[in-house]
Amino acid sequence: MDTKQIKxxxxxxxxxxxxxxxxxxxxxxxxxxxxFSEQTTESENDDVLRxxxxxxxxxxxxxxxxxxxxxxxxxxxxxxxGDAIPAGRLEAIPEATLxxxxx
Length: 103
Ligand SMILES: [Zn+2]
What we know:
By secondary structure, this protein is mostly helical.
């Protein structure tokens, strides 16, 4: 497995996620519209944005861990049991740090 390629992929993925989080933050910073009729929709929208942001931040943390593993030469090893993570799983989820059993 070419870890350099994986690293580049993870870095690109992280950059995209950071961009998304920044866009969501900017959306929040714009504040609420004065039109009260739109308030319900707005707060539902806020919930969606909040969960999208949480999701992105969780994924960023996951990617950071995988990047640390690459730098430590431990990429592809399960953090919990120390077993090798199957190549197919890493291909599907390059930021995976747990094997199929421990995930
Ligand atoms: Zn495991």
